[in-house]
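Appendix B. Worked example

We walk through a single record from start to finish. Start with the input: the chain for tRNA-specific adenosine deaminase, Collinsella aerofaciens, length 593.
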Amino acid sequence: MTSAGIDEKFMREALAEARAAAAVGEVPIGAVVVRAGEIVARAHNRRELDQDPSAHAEFSALCAAAQSLGRWRLSDCTVYVTLEPCCMCAGLMVNARVGRCVYGAADAKAGALGSLYDLNADPRLNHRFNVTAGVLADGCRAVLSSYFSGLRSADGAGCDCGADLEAHAAHAEALAGVGDLADEALDFGPVQRRPRRVLLAIDSFKGSVSSAQAEAAVAEGVRRVWPDAQVSALPLADGGEGTLDVVATCGGELSTCEAAGPLGDRVSARMLVDGERESAVIEMAEAAGIGYSPCTKSAALAASTYGVGELMLRAVCGGAKTIYIGLGGSATNDGGAGMLQALGAHVVDKRGCNIAPGLAGLEHVASIDLAPALRALNGARIVVLSDVENPLVGRRGALAVFGGQKGLLTGDAEALRGYDSWMVGYGRLLDTAIVEARAQGLLRVPEGVRTFGSVLGVPGAGAAGGLGAALLALGAELRSGVETVLDLIGFDERVRDADLVITGEGNMDEQSAAGKAPVGVARRAKRYGKPVVAVVGGRADNLDAVYGQGVDLVLPVCRKPMGLELALDPQEATTNLICAGEAAAQAFDLGRI
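Next comes the structure step. The output line below is what the pipeline stores for this chain.
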């Protein structure tokens, strides 16, 4: 039998002890002590039954092994335990001179053999021992989860400790009584420390390196410090540029088709469809992105979202029942009117003719009928991915805030007020059309989605030049872009066992806390108590809001003085990111995070 097979064999014995603990109402943790291939002691958690703070499974098993063997030194023994030992139990292993410990599930809040501390490898102590982590981890975690689920269903108390185990919390104070054994310091040779587990979720450094390139560089730097590190990379996006590529890393089929570009030319646009063809992911910038526009005033007035509607129709015709639409990087200011027209909605002037494309057409809109578009969507659920909270109109509206980057002369206050009045009239017609669609039974409010009186002031309605408002009119759900992307790529499953999370972006400032991807990563990581480092190209003077959202350390990546042009050079940026990855790992080892 292989060494891995032997470890699994004895971990199953420890699991049997864990189940025995559950049977008597104790937190299900079990342990066995093995010498020369034979179990010399076994025990399970009995802290509540015995009202003994030291009655942890591995603590009791070690004491029983010493009694059985007639000696306190257990250097030829291996301890198998279903949950990572706390400080008290790890401290006893040091004092018992155990040869090795094998554990199943990691304990992020109390683990002392890799999660919070490395007591087995601390050179300041007088004994070191090897650790193997993660043996039958899923089974060990499942026993704990099942136990706590039972508690919730039995008393409705809503226990939140899960597999982190308040019942197995650290008892570091117990170490105070072990005595001073410095005079017995021994050298047991090199110690194997559990490899560090690092999760990378870094946004692109726009104009320099992609998300995947940034992560590859940081991973190289991390391995300078931890050569055996287990590094997982999750490319990151927030619903804008790069969302398709990020979600595609988790599966699905990227297909390419022709669609109308923002200025009427046919362009090549991609769409991601899942394996069952029940959902599709669309990036509006694929058909109506700012890269297709010269960003002049005339382009800003004429740019249309018609191609986005074409992509939505293609997804529905392909069988999609859910459509995720990422809003970001748009060239448009048409309030989504072009998208509605592509779906078949009647957006017409006083003569009943279709209005012209773009913001300019909104000056003449007189009536909107959403019914044909809603029938074309055939009940498909629309989920909008955006972290923009701007309303459709006003000082924080789509035109006032984003119009300038698309070519509108925002310094011309009188012209801007005129454009905004067109958008106000359009928004009111959308409101009327929504009421009519509801009366016809064509539009229902999705369960759990808040209703609104008018699309004009809804946070997020101004995203992508007002496309958010038109999608709301079709019954769309507005969701945080980064939160939704993290769900789609399975972030929570990947972060549970990580020791360190490294995120980042090109520039971090106070606005990053309002919904940028790295801060979304930090918030999610903090649910699991993980330390978070953000590597950034530049940073604001004050980042209190960012730190308040869960980022522990912000590391600017420039390793020496350099101008912006050089810093943006992909080769230079890669070198900078390698050094930043190294610094993040060193900071972790120094206890700075």
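Two observations about the output. Residues 413-439 form the longest helix (27 residues). Residues 95 and 224 are 33 Å apart (CA to CA).
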